[in-house]
Fold these 2 entries.
Entry 1:
Amino acid sequence: MNKYIPFFLLALPYLFLKITNLGVWLSDTNIYFYTGHMLLAGKILYKDIFFTNFPLFPYISAVYIFITQGNLPLYYLTAPLEVTLTALLIYMIVLKEKKSRLIALSSSAIFLYSFIILVTSDHQSGVFLGGLFSILSYF
């Protein structure tokens, strides 16, 4: 367990930054929130709910809404949590492959604190879940 302490120390500032800036933004997140909410209300995707993308993420959105009890700001927090889990998997994979905490920590830091991650992880779009699934499949 001690081998994961450096990662958690790396991820804490990222999570703190995201939690302190938590709010409702103008983004696709609201569409996914609404779609997930309608699925939980018994509506059927593509029949009752107009949707043009693949169906996996709306169902996962419904799970997120269930977990967050329909709290929209908490729903927005699911994207940073997906990013953090992806960074943890990167840390674990690199640690296993390279046997170096420094390289594993650097790899996670490059992902976690990259500009694109910092800018886009304020809202939920399903992209980070796709990244999490791809890293998880490698793991």
Entry 2:
Amino acid sequence: PAELPPVRASADLPPQDAEALGTAVEVTVSPLRYRVIEVFGTTSYNCLFSVGVRNLTDEPQEVRMGFRATGAPTAVWEGDRPTALDPGERRELVLGWDGATPEEVELDEARCTGPVELTALGVAPG
């Protein structure tokens, strides 16, 4: 809402401010992209996005994330398992929706475009 202050990435905060917030992870997200993949004679249709997640602490962390497509608010991706990260580890994940036919993919090719936003973030010692 307009009455809330603008969001600032924790990576842009001065170190003492980020530390006071208890910043533990950094998350970056790519825009959506539509891909048709053929492997061993089988075709799959995909609406994908990439997530970079990095543990900023010196302890193992488990990270749970949820996302939604900003152009299609009903297209929600929720992880069923946490991502385990060692101290300082950075991992790149490819997430999204797929199916054996274009109709099975939650987003069609025309709507599989634009930004993805983080809707949920949980970090726990792991």
